[in-house]
């Protein structure tokens, strides 16, 4: 079942087409990454899906509601973190949460208090609840902004560059929180980012967009495979000799063997990594080799991303 589904979604600003006939789906409970360089159309896409702006063409459904006909219902079921979250810095963390809870219609006083405490506890901000937001670090402000987006218990979250401008420790904290929200609270999350580290560690699938158009959609492994053809099996041995090399080269599953004598290492290209790996290791052992390590080498998502975006330019 899809939580988000778009068909030909387009947004034009004057002579600029910011989003160009974008079609994709985000499955229920999925953490889906929308990747692309600055100016690719990520933020505009999220703003249309959250019913903050209207599309010029195309259609989209969010939680089963049409973004044109049912914009109020869409707003009730989504939480959104914009790239520059607007918090009231002269108010305390609790006062910010209380204000936005009222905006989202939480009228029962006890229910509202319980929800605010639950979220501030979850984001480890309860001890700072009475401190003004102006005194918070950027990482704490990001946590509070995400907590604010969750106050009305939306099943769908749109997070636009949640780790932008954060130091490595704060970035990891936000990534851990997104993982917990996805796994523990079962939120559907659309993550907009140009940080490949976030997408690689968190997302089950990603879509790369450039100039408002989709370049490719798939799992991180599928994107890697698009630029490599076959994975490389890297085997490090105690000692390396010609008998071992010949034994590996004779295997039908092996396409190519490269030898690094200085590191007593073999770099082996195969078609099917799962079926080939045990056969390769067995042949090495039968030839008298002592295996120290076996690794499967794939490019990082960042390498795949850069290659795919480069192909799109050509």
Number of distinct beta strands: 14
What separation lies between the terminal Cα atoms? 36 Å
Give a short account of the largest sheet: 6 strands, mixed
Shape: elongated
Q: Tell me the name of the CATH class of the largest domain.
A: Alpha Beta
Determine the strand fraction and express it as a percent band. 25-35%
SSE string, helix = H, strand = E? EEEHEEHEHHHEHEHEEHEHEEHEH
What topology, given as strand order, has the largest sheet?
A: 6-7-8-3-9-10
Rg calculated over all Cα atoms? 24 Å
Could you name the ranges where pLDDT drops below 50 across 5 or more consecutive residues?
none
Residue share in helix: 25-40%
CATH homologous superfamily of the largest domain? Answer: P-loop containing nucleotide triphosphate hydrolases
Derived from helix and strand composition plus strand pairing, the structural class reads alpha/beta
Description of the molecule:
The protein has helices spanning 42-49, 71-77, 93-103, 109-122, 138-150, 168-183, 196-202, 220-228, 242-249, 273-286, 301-313, and strands at 2-13, 16-27, 31-35, 57-62, 65-66, 78-81, 156-160, 188-193, 205-210, 213-218, 232-237, 254-260, 265-270, 291-297. The chain has 314 residues and is an alpha/beta fold. It has 2 domains: 2-218, Rossmann fold (3-Layer(aba) Sandwich), CATH 3.40.50.300; 226-299, Alpha-Beta Plaits (2-Layer Sandwich). Strands 6-7-8-3-9-10 form a 6-stranded mixed sheet, with helices on both faces. Strands 2-1-4-5 form a 4-stranded antiparallel sheet, covered by helices on one side. Strands 12-13-11-14 form a 4-stranded antiparallel sheet, covered by helices on one side. A hairpin with a 4-residue loop joins strand 12 and strand 13. Helix 3 crosses helix 4 and helix 5 packs parallel to helix 6 (168-183). The longest helix has 16 residues, at 168-183. The protein is elongated. The relative contact order is 0.13. The mean pLDDT is 90.
């Amino acid at each position: 079942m899809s939580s988000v589904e778009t068909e030909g979604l387009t947004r034009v600003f004057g002579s600029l087409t910011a989003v160009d006939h974008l079609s994709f789906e985000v499955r229920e409970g999925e953490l889906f990454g929308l990747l692309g360089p600055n100016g690719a159309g990520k933020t505009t896409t999220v703003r249309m899906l959250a019913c903050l702006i209207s599309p010029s063409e195309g259609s989209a459904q969010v939680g089963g509601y049409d973004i044109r006909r049912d914009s109020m219902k869409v707003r009730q079921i989504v939480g959104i973190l914009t790239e520059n979250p607007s918090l009231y810095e002269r108010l305390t963390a609790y006062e910010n949460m209380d204000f936005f809870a009222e905006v989202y219609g939480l009228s029962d006083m006890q229910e509202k208090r319980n929800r605010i405490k639950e979220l501030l506890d979850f984001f480890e901000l309860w001890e700072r609840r009475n401190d003004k937001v102006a005194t918070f670090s950027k990482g704490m402000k990001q946590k509070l902004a995400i907590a604010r987006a969750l106050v009305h218990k939306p099943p769908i979250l749109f997070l636009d560059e949640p780790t932008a401008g954060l130091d490595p420790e704060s970035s990891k904290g936000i990534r851990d929180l997104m993982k917990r929200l996805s796994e523990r609270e079962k939120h559907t999350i659309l993550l907009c980012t140009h940080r490949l580290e976030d997408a690689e560690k968190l997302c089950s699938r990603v879509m790369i967009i450039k100039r408002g158009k989709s370049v490719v959609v798939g799992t991180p492994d599928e994107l890697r495979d698009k630029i490599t053809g076959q994975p490389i099996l890297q085997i490090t041995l105690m000692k390396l000799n010609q008998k071992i090399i010949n034994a590996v080269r004779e295997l039908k599953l092996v396409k190519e063997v490269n030898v690094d004598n200085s590191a007593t290492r073999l770099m082996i290209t195969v078609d099917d990594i799962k079926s080939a790996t045990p056969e390769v290791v067995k042949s090495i052992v039968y030839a008298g080799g002592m295996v120290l390590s076996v690794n499967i080498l794939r490019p990082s998502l960042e390498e795949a991303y850069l290659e795919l975006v480069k192909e799109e330019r050509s």
